[in-house]
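anyone seen this seq b4? input:
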Amino acid sequence: MAARGAQTGLLYRSMNTVTIIGSFSGEGECARAVRAVRTARIDDFHTFSPFPSHKIAAAIELPKSPSRWVALVGGIAGILTGLAVTIGTTYEWRLNAGGKPLVSWPPFIVITFELMILLGGISGFLAFLFMSGVPAFESASGYNSHFGEDRFGLVVRCTKEDADGVESMLKTAGAEEVVRGV
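predicted toks r here
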């Protein structure tokens, strides 16, 4: 019985949300609208722009991507793999070249470096793909083809009670057009 009530509550909440789409002519106005939406503590929004905008990215205040830490772990795994392979094969085969000691670091550094770069690069690239959601199999809700040409867009999902306030925020920030969706 409690599970049905929880599902009904979720259904009620999803039916109670509204999508508001604002169209802006410049990145400054869109960034101002993003700051206003974030100040109102609304976190469910998406921005669209015809080119990468540092003003909008700064207004969104996204945290740094953890993909750099994945690349670091991949690089460390490459170092450990390179050392394990070189030292392991040296002890397994007992190859003594020119009377040098079996574990001689200078030739091992080249293979270790190459594996560090290889595994670090591959893991960083895969982390980037996974964390960025590439490829996207469906377009984002509220996308308008003008957002890729000459307009900036801000799509906000909020409750029906907050919709009028969000519309006025977008108009105050400089939206040329504000459309309410379902």
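Residues 105-132 form the longest helix (28 residues). Helices lie at 2-15, 27-39, 54-60, 67-93, 105-132, 160-173. kinda curious what u guys think
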